[in-house]
């Protein structure tokens, strides 16, 4: 299994990225698993909270690019696209546990989570422009809304990385937690959240995120259109060739 799925008696569904040999790079199969799990959790009244986590050493190194490129057009049938819309539409709280790498979608997915806890010395990065591409997952909307335009430009245009302390300071991460305590801490937070009246929690999330969620749907669609065009460009193709060549060395 590339995504391990477990459910607690308290109503917490835990989705664990489990592809350590690839630093939890997200494959098409993993996207399908995540999308299906979120859709199931949405329908199941027994599930109150979802936890999204990697291991104690790595959250996700981003897309498995070779797999991603094999899926064709970025339309509704593309597993990555389906996941992005499902993540944005999800009405129940998502709590994320982040350790090690959080690259590309490993960072932008956190913008859709409600609580995010991270181990010390994480590396967050959104290197889209370095690959000749543009932001995804509505990050062009959500990141500047969270941290301001100039800092968002620093991380989305230059593709600079940042650490856990910076992520906490900018509001992307709620709290830093020791690596060996992270998963247990997040499990306890999720259980605490699951004990609260579900209707109150879900209505509160809707009030907090409702207007931005609708805007994010449009942003995802706009980003995907540009992303698809850039993906075909000579500049992007050269960057991808260089990336794969460097990776194979």
TrEMBL record:
Keyword Isomerase assigned: yes
The keyword Isomerase is annotated on this UniProt entry:
yes
Q: Which InterPro entries did the record assign?
A: ECH/Chromodomain_protein, Enoyl-CoA_hydra/iso
Name the lineage.
Answer: Bacteria, Pseudomonadati, Pseudomonadota, Gammaproteobacteria, Chromatiales
Q: Name one Pfam family in it.
A: ECH_1
Q: What is this protein called?
A: Enoyl-CoA hydratase/isomerase family protein
Q: Which domain of life is it from?
A: Bacteria
Q: Which CDD domains match?
A: crotonase-like
Record's keyword terms, sorted: Isomerase
